[in-house]
Write a structure and sequence with these properties.
The structure is a single chain. This protein is of the alpha+beta class. The protein has three domains: about 5-305, Beta Barrel (Porin), CATH 2.40.160.40; about 330-420, no CATH class; about 485-600, 60s Ribosomal Protein L30, Chain: A (2-Layer Sandwich). It is built from eight helices and 21 strands. It has helices spanning about 5-20, 155-160, 330, 370-375, 415-425, 510-525, 545-565, 590-595; strands at about 30, 60-80, 80-100, 105-120, 135-140, 145-155, 160-170, 185-195, 200-210, 215-220, 220-225, 225-240, 245-255, 265-275, 280-290, 300-305, 485-490, 490-495, 530-535, 570-575, 595-600. The strands form three sheets. The protein has a twelve-stranded antiparallel beta barrel with strand order 2-3-4-6-7-8-9-12-13-14-15-16. A five-stranded mixed beta sheet has the order 17-18-21-19-20. The two termini are about 30 Å apart. About 40% of the residues are buried.
Length: about 600
């Protein structure tokens, strides 16, 4: 799920369809009114009252939250700003939330609020006798049950921007006139934008949506459907022993039934969030009502605890470890082909013993990490003796060629890596991620002493830089042969042709070798902050078709590079069509030169 792909487009189309399928507002009536504006996020990775875009990795699907808040004067009756009476002078509310990841892009959240309401108001000066209910002393109340599905269209961890749709439903389970406020189901859809500024610790968050409900009247207040806007800013500071996050929310609600001061609410919230452990986050803060529409207190105090149990995160970097494999013992055997000898891939020096890199304890078997790697390469995950269907698309009983380019009968390393990243596995379960801006989504610390783009953890020659030339470029050792990718004069020059199928944006298989070298080159050059991928065509055919084809081809190259470890935010794909020729389109040779992909380094 990387890049703005067809899958993204289909998911987003579904989200927009759901967003637009909203009920109409019912006619006005006299009924209770809701005094609680603060509803803590009910799904994973939210920020106080705002939902985040990310969905938790399915290997650890649960997250739980407990929140306590006190609001002073959440409901008063006023006339042109002049206080008439305090209907609810204080609310102590408790919210419990639970979220569960269904798939890698769907999450279900639930929330249940409880409250103690306080007040001694005389409403007879503002309403006819018996029309406006009031709180006599204090009363306990159950609020409306919240059902909060979240559909992630883009993942900030992989795509450079988080985008999701939340379609919240509130079921009328309230037991108080002032804690729920609707006798019908309330629909509150909203779009979520989420972005972390890499390397800065900053996070920006936005929620834009509406609350669609029946209109009720209380004194001079008309409580009905609203437009909702929430903006959030967070700054995460690594204190060495534990991260600390400073969070700020601004939430506004604009009434649609009537727009007076009573129907416009604006509240700011701030909090300090401490990580008591890798699973537990504590929040302490408060806020003020900037514009005091109904349900907005003069001030609010809040505290919260969120628990995201990570049963498979031994190194505590937030990235789940490899799932346990019931067949792991059979992968410890270094003689997989059964010829009575240690397989060549585990015995590079030919001494008949397992190399130290695969057998550090000297027991003659593969270590846990090596065995798990072999398990990941196995195309028969279920152990039925056949290649699993996802690796045998043509149904011939063999591993598809594009997944096994070296023909060893196992999944290639890049396929294993892509699967692990997509599933949220930690590639280094015993070592914590260093969050240094280099491949921070794989769970590995990316030290690279020789600066060749092959991290030390996987570099067989950590003190000698790899020479990127298409021959064993992923082992980290220098070797002979001409380079096909060079960096000069603000460009990354590819000396071989990146080929596509005719009139298509699908890459030819032979292009993978070139693009792999390109990926390693960019990984090795962290001084290259951003690269423009320019797609170009010749002038044959219509201009519009060429513009579209060049954009699609540039997108395909970007998608390949993202899938192989380059962060999407470092790449920009632009299709120029035939508008920037470098040769004469009247000749076959010229047209061939004009059909190209260029890589321009952003110098800003």
């Amino acid at each position: 799920m990387k890049g703005v792909s067809l899958r993204h487009a289909l998911k987003f189309s579904l989200l927009v369809l759901v967003f637009c399928s909203v009920p109409r507002t019912a006619a006005a009536q006299t009924d209770p009114i809701d005094t609680q504006r603060f509803r803590p996020h009910a799904t994973y990775d939210g920020l106080l009252a705002l939902e985040g875009a990310q969905v938790r990795f399915p290997v650890d699907p649960w997250s739980v939250g407990f929140w306590l808040n006190y609001g002073y004067n959440p409901l008063v009756i006023a006339n042109d700003g002049d206080l008439i009476t305090r209907v609810v002078s204080g609310t102590v509310a408790f919210d419990a939330t639970v979220a569960y990841t269904v798939t890698d892009w769907i999450e279900l959240g639930f929330g249940l609020p409880l409250a103690m309401l306080m007040g001694e108001a005389d409403t007879s000066t503002a309403c006819a006798p018996g029309v406006c209910p009031s709180v006599d002393g204090s009363e306990g109340a159950l609020g409306d049950l919240r059902f909060v599905p979240k559909f992630m269209a883009m993942d900030d961890r992989l795509d450079g921007l988080g985008l999701a749709l939340v379609t919240e439903l509130r079921v009328p389970t309230h037991t108080s006139d002032f804690y729920g406020g609707s006798t019908m189901v309330v629909f509150a859809p909203r779009l979520v934008l989420d972005h972390r500024l890499e390397g800065s610790g900053l996070r920006l968050l936005g929620n834009l949506g509406a609350t669609l409900r029946e209109t009720t009247t209380y004194a001079n207040i008309k409580a009905g459907s609203e437009l909702d806007l929430g903006l959030g800013l967070a700054y995460r500071l690594d204190m060495g022993f534990s991260p600390v996050e400073f969070a700020l929310d601004v939430n506004s609600h604009l009434g649609l039934a009537e727009l007076d001061k009573e129907e416009f609410a604006l509240e700011t919230l701030g909090a300090v969030q401490l990580y008591a452990s890798r699973d537990v986050k504590l929040s302490f803060g408060g806020g003020v009502g900037v514009v005091g529409g109904y349900g907005t207190p003069t001030f609010r105090l809040l505290g919260g605890l969120t628990w995201t149990p990570s049963s498979r995160d031994a190194d505590g970097d937030g990235r789940p470890d490899h799932p346990e494999d019931e067949r792991i013992e059979e992968y410890r055997n270094p003689d997989q082909d059964g010829d009575g000898k240690v397989d060549e891939e585990f015995d590079h020096d030919g001494d008949g013993k397992v190399d130290e890199g695969y057998d550090e304890n000297g027991d003659g078997k593969l270590d846990d990490d090596a065995a798990r790697n072999e398990a990941a390469k196995d195309p028969d995950k279920n152990g039925d003796g056949k290649v699993d269907p996802q690796y045998d698309k043509n149904g011939d009983g063999k591993l598809d060629k594009e997944l096994d380019e070296d023909g060893d009968g196992k999944l290639d390393d890049d396929v294993v890596l892509a699967e692990a990243l997509a599933s949220g596995q930690d590639l280094c379960p015993d070592l914590p991620e260093d969050f240094d801006g280099i491949e921070d989504d794989d769970g590995c610390p990316e030290g690279d002493k020789d600066g060749d783009g092959v991290v030390d953890l996987f570099d067989r020659c950590p003190d000698e830089a790899e020479f990127i030339n298409g021959f064993e470029d992923d082992d980290g050792c220098p070797d002979e042969g001409p380079a096909q990718v060079v960096v000069e004069n603000g460009q990354i020059k590819v000396l071989a042709t990146i080929k596509f199928k005719t009139n298509s944006d699908e890459l030819e298989d032979e292009s993978a070798v070139i693009l792999d070298q390109l990926v390693l080159t960019i990984r090795a050059r962290q001084d290259i902050r951003a690269v423009e991928i320019g797609g170009h065509t010749d002038s044959t055919g219509s201009h519009d078709l060429n513009m579209r084809l060049s954009q699609l081809r540039a997108n395909s190259v970007k998608r390949y590079m993202v899938e192989h470890g380059i962060q999407a935010k470092r790449l920009q794909a632009i299709g120029y069509g035939p508008d920037k020729p470098i040769a004469d389109n009247k000749t076959d040779e010229g047209r061939a030169l004009n059909r190209r992909v260029e890589f321009i380094i952003d110098q800003r």
